[in-house]
Design a protein that fits this description.
The chain has 18 helices and 13 strands. By secondary structure, it is an alpha+beta fold. The strands form 4 sheets. It has a 5-stranded antiparallel β-sheet. Strands 1-2-3 form a 3-stranded antiparallel β-sheet. Strands 11-13-12 form a 3-stranded antiparallel β-sheet, covered by helices on one side.
Length: 566
């Protein structure tokens, strides 16, 4: 154990003896390996990189600590006696200038050495550019030595020299100079507190002015509306004024916006919001004007003798609304940064596949256009379509709806509607009443003549029938009856009115047949064993009257002259 300890001590002594001569040979402490460089002391203001310098300046000015903020400015050109007073003021003014400068902090270098910039010397970094009356000015950072020689990044002395001139161009003007510092220096989302208050006041004033200028009761508004053809008492006209107020309010707000001296970085957001609202308001106004214009067209068509094309107006109104809505959506998408041209191209390519898949739907659409344009029927007409009949309730772009007499609704696709036979019963100027009277074979010829004469007289004298086209003829001999054809038009277009007239006419014809002493034949073969149902006395009276007509030469058969009509 002792031997091992002695051996270890000897080795250590040998090593020390070997090292000491080497140290003496190189008293300066040099060695073949490069000595490690100690890192510079950390900067208390975080000015080691361009990005940290800007971030530190913004944080200090946001907290109104302008004495700290002036440490980020290269003030070497300012006399030492004036640094304490001018430094904070220059920092405050630079913050206003930066608020009106378009720059992106994320693109600024975060490396201690910075990033090479085209057109700039080494050790300089571009923050942003600002437009002035004399041209474009670049705000720069420059790498300068600290008091102890350590390089740091500060706003260049050239930029600091131009701060007062830039501030005069982009400052808040007389408003900012006379307001309390608290309202000017307190910022929320890059806007001064007084600017937020100004935005709210401007919004309220814009809406108040719009409401005062655009009112339904205002004489100018009523005069203009009446001159154009609007009905000022129509509720649609009142609804059309709401988007007009929004448009006037937006114009007033736009006119008052420069007085707020908003930062340049905020203006793109505000202008984007204004464009978004403008698209919505104009679309809203266009939709309301389409409704009001449709009402004007309907009223003008009602003054014409021909019936108004209500389905055509509804179709045009819906089509215009669809077009306006689609354009509004495209403009809104463009306002939020979507590539509308690429979207339209994609829709065009996909539209071919959609058209092929929706072939039947497109066919029904064109069928609806044909129905609306040709107008074989209109809403409210009673018609017969194929083997169905009913009242047309609605003519749409895709289908037509019928309300049947049993109160059910039938929906017919417009493509099929065009292939069916359509009979518009509503367009009849008169309604035909045609029937065949079947009298018994026991009816004597003179009885039949009497029945024909009396029915003709009835048709001529009835106020609801058309005598010019009426006829009553003995048409022939049926299997079990003597057939008399009755043909007459009823002067009405209403189905219920026609039923009432037809009922009265049938009852009167029954009275005539009964008065002639005959009867209607039964639809069957009958073996008669008696004269049941026949009236000999009335038969004799009818025959006597016919003989009298024949003797006087006034028998109105086969022609019924006007002077012999009853």
């Amino acid at each position: 154990m002792i031997r091992r300890l002695v051996l270890g001590v000897g080795l250590v002594a040998l090593a020390l003896a070997t090292a000491l001569p080497a140290t003496a040979a190189n008293p300066a402490g040099g060695s073949t390996a490069a000595p490690e460089t100690a890192p510079p002391p950390p900067d208390e203001f975080g000015r080691g990189t361009p990005q940290s310098t800007i971030r530190g300046f913004l944080e200090a000015t946001t907290l109104h600590n302008y004495r700290r903020a002036m440490s980020y400015l290269d003030l070497r050109r300012i006399p030492a006696a004036g640094v304490a007073t001018r430094g904070p003021e220059l920092a405050r003014q630079l913050r206003v200038v930066l608020d009106n400068t378009i720059y992106d902090l994320g693109t600024v270098s975060d490396e201690p050495e910075g990033r090479p910039e085209t057109g700039l010397a080494k050790g300089r970094q571009l923050v942003g550019r600002i437009e002035t009356e004399k041209g474009t000015f670049s705000i720069l950072l420059e790498r300068v030595p600290r008091d102890d020689g350590v390089p740091i990044w500060q706003f260049s002395n050239v930029t600091v020299t131009r701060i007062p001139d830039l501030y005069r161009e982009v400052s808040y003007g007389i408003v900012g100079e006379r307001l309390p510092p608290f309202l000017v220096e307190t910022r929320v989302l890059r806007l001064a507190l007084w600017q937020w208050i100004g935005l709210l006041v401007l919004l309220g004033a814009s809406w108040l002015i719009a409401c005062l200028v655009v009112r339904p009761g205002l004489p100018l508004t009523r005069r203009v509306a009446i001159r154009v053809g609007f009905d000022v008492n129509d509720p649609t006209f009142g609804r059309a004024l709401s988007p007009l107020r929004g448009l006037v309010g937006l114009i007033v707000f736009k006119a008052g916006e420069p007085s707020l001296a908003l930062p340049v970085a905020v203006l793109p957001v505000l202008h984007g919001a204004q464009k978004f609202l403008l698209v919505i308001i104009v679309t809203w106004l266009a939709l309301r004007l389409i409704e009001v214009s449709s009402q004007i067209v309907r009223r003008r068509l009602l003054r014409r003798p021909e019936p108004p094309s209500q389905p055509v107006i509804d179709f045009i109104q819906r089509g215009l609304k669809i077009v306006v809505s689609v354009l509004a959506v495209l403009m809104l998408l463009e306002a939020v940064g979507v590539q509308v041209s690429a979207l339209i191209a994609a829709i065009g390519v996909g539209g071919i596949g959609i058209a092929l898949a929706a072939q039947r739907t497109v066919e029904n659409l064109f069928g609806g256009l044909a129905v609306i344009g040709d107008r074989p029927v209109q809403e409210g007409d009673f018609c017969r379509v194929g083997d169905q009949q009913g009242t047309v309730e609605r003519i749409g772009l895709w289908s037509t709806r019928l309300r049947t007499p049993d109160r059910s609704v039938i929906t017919i696709p417009n493509a099929r509607f065009l292939t069916l036979q359509v009979e518009n019963l509503q367009e009849r100027d008169r309604i035909l009443f045609s029937t065949t009277l079947r009298l018994r074979y026991e009816t004597a010829p003179d009885q039949l003549r009497w029945v024909l004469v009396r029915i003709r007289a009835l048709l001529d004298a009835h106020p609801r029938l058309d005598p010019d086209t009426s006829r009553v003829r003995f048409s022939g001999f049926g299997e079990s009856s003597l057939d008399v054809e009755l043909f007459v038009y009823v002067r009405t277009r209403d189905a219920n009115d026609f039923l009432a007239v037809r009922e009265d006419l049938c009852l009167r014809v029954m009275d005539i047949v009964t008065a002639a002493g005959t009867a209607f034949a039964l639809p069957a073969l009958t073996t008669y064993t008696s004269t049941g149902g026949m009236d000999p006395e009335r038969a004799g009276a009818a025959a006597a009257e016919v003989r009298r007509w024949r003797a006087e030469g006034k028998l109105p058969l086969p022609e019924f002259e006007l002077k012999h009509r009853f």
